[in-house]
Amino acid sequence: MSRGHRSSRNGPTRRALLGGAAVLWPTLVLAQPVPRRPQPAAEASPPPVVFVHGNGDSSALWINNLWRFEANGYKRNQLFAIDFVYPNARSDDSKPQPYRSSAEDQMKELTSFVIQVLKATRRRKVALVGSSRGGNAIRSMLKNGGADLVSHAVLCGTPNKGIVISESLLPGSEFNGAFPFLKGLNAGADDLVPGVELMAIRSDRNDKYSQPDGRFIGAPGKPTGVSYDASELRGARNVVLDGLDHREVAFNKLAFAAMFEHITGKPPASMFIAQEPLPILNGRVTGMAEGGYTNIAAAGAEVEIFEVDPKTGERKSAVALHRKTTGEDGVWGPFVGRADAHYEFVLHMQGMPTTHTYRSPFLRSSDVVHLRPQPFAKADEGAGAVTIMSRPRGYFGVGRDKFTLDGKVPPGINDGVPGASTGRLTFDAAPTRTVMAVFNNETIPTRTWPARDGHIVVAEFLN
Predict the structure, then answer these.
(1) What is this structure's pTM?
(2) Which of the residues 32, 55, 76, 86 could staple to 133 if both were Cys, CB 3.0 to 4.6 A apart?
(3) Residue 109 CB neighbour total at 10 angstroms
(4) Is residue 57 domain-shared with residue 157, that is, in the same domain?
(5) For residues 106 and 84, is the Cβ–Cβ distance under 8 A?
(6) Pair 109, 82: CB distance under 8 Å
(7) Which helix (H) or strand (E) holds 424?
(8) Band of the pLDDT at 44, cuts 50, 70, 90?
(9) What is the model's pLDDT at position 6?
């Protein structure tokens, strides 16, 4: 199916001109018309935006959305992204689990964060944009006393009906429509919240968590009780982005266009990211606990940054452009880079592999360039060198995307509905050589590093 976008009722599209090119924007045709309410004079300008990440993730995933909002007139001090302390959901929402959060935990953390944003911006309301599980926290906040703090909400790939509706699959899960959390959110005739403009963005059939079959939850052949529309909100503005996957419906430029128009009342002037010649980069180092990532700052981690050759990945100098050992806040910067330079970030953390992350050029300044260590997998045992290509803001679509690692499609990336965001290959420890990672128009050169000495390599795609 073509990679377009449409309303949930297959309504018409309208055309806008961007840089002389005709671009299709989604027409937001409503299942149940909901009139837009004019904002009071005191809130005439668009509200501050708070981005809410999904399960296991961090605010780093929103970097392109932040840049695009900036490129369309938003000031950076009006854009915020939360980092939940424990981003992974409990297996059973009702039972405490170390280093994991309940739906209620996330709702309280988000509410507190929004109150801080309102104080900082001296505004009455914010717009909330959530990816996947982030939408659960948003809906919970809206239904538990937080609606007066919010003007707009956009839920992207949020399993509003559930990943499953089942007594036997994922029992007790926050994502199971048969259990208390989602049953409570979905009670009533519709999903509307008085005073809040609601939008849901979803895929047509390419969301791995909106599938009639349980393949992606480890139960192939078993019915989930939901279908491709599991992310829709009843009565709200529902936008379908054809061909996009579970993550892309939050982070793709088409998703940005829909959320920007919903919040501001007008389409963006551009979906391109305006470059800054000398971007200032910063972020935090965070770690792991019991096999899962947290967003807790890691003290005592050393970060080095090297500029590398865009064709070979070789370091242009033996001396790091930047080196810092993190304090209690985990902050590794700031670092002034160049918008045309490729960089290697080296993260040294006690008890973890030294992680070499190769990145494409950074187009603008950002303070959400967060760094996490990459653990070895069982498949890496005995390998001379390990290289991983990673796409945090989407999955690899076989037949939809062009992607290779060292000229090959890595094993483990499934056909059909895109379901894998990483691919890995192993190599001999010597000789050290270049390994190219390619995703569509993005190419990242890396170098092999010896696994026996505790090194692992990641090529992280921006798009």
Answers:
(1) 0.91
(2) 55
(3) 19
(4) yes
(5) yes
(6) yes
(7) strand 422-427
(8) confident
(9) 54
